[in-house]
Design a protein that fits this description.
The protein has 92 residues and is α+β, with helices and mostly antiparallel strands. The protein has one domain: 2-Layer Sandwich (Gyrase A, domain 2). 41% of the residues lie in helices and 30% in strands. It has 2 helices and 4 strands; from the N terminus they run E-E-H-E-E-H. A 4-stranded antiparallel β-sheet has the order 1-2-4-3, covered by helices on one side. A hairpin with an 8-residue loop joins strand 3 and strand 4 (53-58). Helix 1 packs across helix 2.
Length: 92
């Protein structure tokens, strides 16, 4: 996955996710919005074939890149849990 930082401020980040689609971006924005330090998390795709741009704004001293990293780790954890449950179910 290639990510380009378009704009970075203390409480705002805009990133471009090269080659990603709605599936990943929906999951990431949903997970970001679970963070009480995140004010806004949304993505835009100008055209169906364009790369999505994620915008995250935070409140207080919450770092927007830190929020994105934390949300990504939580998503990875959910995937690990799912894989474990599938493996357990398959071994029965």
């Amino acid at each position: 996955m290639e990510i380009k930082i378009i704009d970075l401020e203390p409480n705002k980040a805009r990133l471009l996710f090269v080659g990603e689609d709605h599936t990943f971006m929906n999951a990431l924005t949903d997970e970001l919005l679970r963070d009480p330090g995140v004010d806004v998390a949304r993505y835009m795709m100008e055209f169906h074939f364009s790369d999505p741009e994620l915008m995250v704004t935070t409140v207080g001293d919450r770092d927007p890149l830190g929020a994105i990293i934390d949300a990504s780790r939580r998503l990875a954890g959910h995937c690990d849990d799912l894989l474990e449950q599938i493996a357990e179910a398959a071994s029965r």
